[in-house]
Amino acid sequence: MKASFWKALEALGAAGSAACDWRLELGGDWDACAALLRPSGRTASTVIDPRHPSLHAPRRLVLMVDGEEDFVAVDEDPSLPPIPFKAAEVVEMQPSWEPISQALATALGFDFGAWENQGSLRRIGSSQDPFGRVTPVLLFLPSGHLGDYHGLFRELSARSESTVLFPGKRWFTAEIEALRARNHLEFVDLAERLAAIDAHAALRAPLPPITRPRGPSGPKVRAVIHAGNGLTWSQIRIEIVGNQTIHLKAPGQDGSYSFPKRAQLGPEHPLGILMSLAAKGEWRNPPPSSADYERVSKSFHRLRTLLSQLVPLPGKPFKRSRGAFVPLFEIRVAQKLLRAQ
Question: pTM of this prediction?
């Protein structure tokens, strides 16, 4: 991952620009960065004038179809000759979220996961501190339009306790910095950080930790399975081993979680729900008309939240099927418990 990619993105935006514009901005890093772009399926409408490139205010030429040269770029000044372009040079290219996110995860040392697929601010993974606490990692790709800043502020206002990756520091206004403090966010300037890593290959400083508020609102459950490397819920196995403890396994990983002993066990306790899932393969809440619906559905919601904290993966741990919740993970009871029954 090159720092020059983020400087080019700041110059061109993520909405789409001609392939020749990306080549011009990336220079000698084009080959290293081309895989981070994808064709939008359109032809660009304008191109940067290659005769007068500028970092701050590039002159743009309008593209027109030309039978002999595929396209020509025309200046407003009719005295300037048109510039011919081949069709491949003016294919509109956009940043591709998944390869960019995977490259950033490798470069910065967090766990990639395609959590979201809409908007200019998306969760692309998670980082874990030495204590297993999980922090969402967000990436902002500005479209290059006038409304980018206001859209960023609106989207960022709905986020909290996250690390946010920006193409550059120009977005760090006083207003955004105040939002950072209020929502317990941490910002990373990608162009600056990647340039530092490129200058010092051994530098792999961890992402900045989140200063979380103290008190009952703080996280109480730590992850026991490390996300990343394409891990999905279908690769997770949960085993009920007794003593109010479950054992969680993933390829190359395992860990345990014990429920608080003070909690009263019952069919709607998370452990009781897991026992039912192991026996029946699904969970059904009572019908909404039932007097027990609210109590039982809240208990099941707490289990889903707990599992997502223990195993911080994209997506939900259950799928809906004909009114039932079917686990996407494997759930079973340890053989020693089955023999004891």
Answer: 0.70
